[in-house]
Amino acid sequence: MIEMQDVWKTYPNGTHALQGVSVKIDRNEFVYLVGPSGAGKSTFMKLVYREEVPTKGQISVNGFNIGKLKPRKIPYVRRNIGVIFQDFRLLPKLTAYENVAFAMEVIEAPKRLIRKRVPEVLELVGLKNKINRDPSQLSGGEQQRVAIARAIVNNPSVIIADEPTGNLDPETSWEIMQLLDEINFRGTTIIMATHNKDIVNSMRRRVIAIEHGHIVRDQMRGEYGYDL
Questions:
Q1: Backbone angles phi, psi at 82, to 5 degrees
Q2: 21-30, 160-169, 207-216: least confidently modelled range
Q3: How far is residue 161's CA from residue 147's CA, in Å, rounded to a whole number?
Q4: What is the full DSSP assignment across 37-64?
Q5: Which positions fall inside the ABC transporter domain (predicted)?
Q6: H-type helices in the chain, by residue range?
Q7: pLDDT (tens digit, 9 = 90+) per residue, 75-114?
Q8: Which has the closest alpha carbon to 207: 18, 23, 6?
Q9: Is 193 exposed, middle or buried (0-12, 13-18, 19+ CB in 10 A)?
């Protein structure tokens, strides 16, 4: 599904965000990215969904060489990657339904399909009765559920989740993790950056630890492994 071969990412200010990273992530895996702030986790994920390109090395996602994509191919690759952010990034003037529908509209999905698919996905994330609420009328956990619905509505093969529970209370965080676990069970590969030690240690999945731009640990059914 995802492969990095000797990937380096150096920003214009000279910061080496990633240094010689090589890793393979298989289809249907659930992978935690852990490590200190500034270790390179966000850069790792931005490279996967092509917000950044590698300075050196090769990245393939679903068989596409990310660093050498032609501009016309970028939207096609991105529609197969759902992204979930810590701060939700919902459009404040749109309802839950409209926020999710927007993700389908940008890829020019037929209106008939949008009308069918959006309610199905909002029901999946537990918001069947709140599809017409604005983000301001939803709790933080509900807003994150809308963000997850938006990320999965186009049936992506990969979901990138950047601290999806970072702004949520513990109980809501577990609810979101159970939802992501269900999405993974249905066949979607998930890469999740997190500082939540309890979640990583309780839901034993593959753990990739990054420090100073290097992968320092890669364990199946791993633990968080850092003092908070």
A1: -95, 140
A2: 160-169
A3: 10
A4: TTSSHHHHHHHHTTSS--SEEEEEETTE
A5: 2-228
A6: 41-48, 74-78, 96-105, 111-124, 140-152, 170-185, 197-202
A7: 888 888 999 988 888 999 999 999 999 999 988 899 999 9
A8: 23
A9: buried
Dist CA 58 CA 5 (whole Å) = 5
Contact between 209 and 186 under an 8 Å Cβ cutoff? The reply is no
Distinct helix (H) and strand (E) counts, the chain: 7, 10
Residues 215, 209: contact at Cβ < 8 Å? yes
* Residue 29 pLDDT: 97
**What amino acid occupies position 190?**
I
pLDDT score of 41: 94
Instruction: Kindly tell me the burial class for residue 8, based on how many C-beta atoms sit within 10 Å of its own C-beta (0-12, 13-18, 19 or more).
Output: middle
Residue 43 and residue 26: Cα distance in Å, rounded? 20
Which pLDDT score, from 0 to 100, does residue 227 have? Answer: 61
